[in-house]
Amino acid sequence: MTDVLSADAKTAPQPMPPLRPEYERPLEPLADTTSEEVLPVYRRLWQRAWPRKSLILLCLALLWEIIARLQANELLLPPFSAAIRALVEDTISGVIPVRALNSLDVLIKGYAAGVVLAFVLTSLAVSTQLGRDLLSTLTSMLNPLPPIALLPLALLWFGLGQGSLVFVLIHSVLWPLALNMYTGFTGVPETLRMAGRNYGLRGVRYVLFILVPAALPSIIAGLKIGWAFAWRTLIAAELVFGASSGKGGLGWYIFQNRNELYTDRVFAGLITVILFGLLVENVLFRQLECRTVAKWGMAR
């Protein structure tokens, strides 16, 4: 009897759930709204970085002018307008451009040599255990050593010339850049490494086509740090060395005018140093980031 009832229950049709009738609800039109709102000019400008930074610089210059006029001693602190006047005069006369070119000539040589050496040293470190030990030992020993402390040794080895300045510049660029490059290389995902090996990449080709693009954010950060170290080291070395091979740079320009108590020209030299720093940081490196890591989605 139980088997008959269960068989009837299996064969009996199951009741269908009630079907809800379909309906379409039209959307109400948006009342008096536009899809795009044109922002005012001042808001569009404020969204850019350069107007905000320009406003900050303008406020700092105004504060400098007020403090200088209140203390009324141009020997200690000339007004901002006097420093700008000295900067314009020496730029038109050609003094500052010649000094700046001398500094940039030495800087490019030392910076390029430091970058090449850092690349070679880091490539060895990611390829062999001995290279890793070498990089770790050298950076632990020499990275904390201030470049200015090597000036007497550089004078003894290379004499009073560009060789001494290039030597201290290489020291200031090499170690921070090598550390950043090595950190970037070690952070490359194993998937990319395996993909490179599967394509048969070895040695320099493996470093150039796999490690360098993947570690480019760290490399650019190291290049920026190395540039800042090199620039400040060069100005400090020129202040100590003076003119090298008869060619003085911006540091020598500042030193000369300090000795002659032309404080406004001292500030003109400092402003030139700052302007070069801003130009390289916000134009050169920014363009490099926009065309590489920002374009690839690796940085914002």
From TrEMBL:
Residues 100-284 form the ABC transmembrane type-1 domain. Pfam families: BPD_transp_1. It is found in: Cell membrane. Residues 1-24 are annotated as: Disordered. Keywords: Cell membrane, Membrane, Plasmid, Transmembrane, Transmembrane helix, Transport. GO terms for biological process: transmembrane transport. The keyword Electron transport does not apply. The keyword Secreted does not apply. GO terms for cellular component: plasma membrane. The chain crosses the membrane at residues 111-130, 142-160, 166-185, 206-229, 235-255, 267-285. It is a multi-pass membrane protein. Its main location: membrane. Belongs to the binding-protein-dependent transport system permease family. PANTHER family: ABC TRANSPORTER PERMEASE PROTEIN (PTHR30151:SF16), ALKANE SULFONATE ABC TRANSPORTER-RELATED, MEMBRANE SUBUNIT (PTHR30151). This is Nitrate/sulfonate ABC transporter permease protein. It comes from Rhizobium etli 8C-3. The lineage of its organism: Bacteria, Pseudomonadati, Pseudomonadota, Alphaproteobacteria, Hyphomicrobiales.
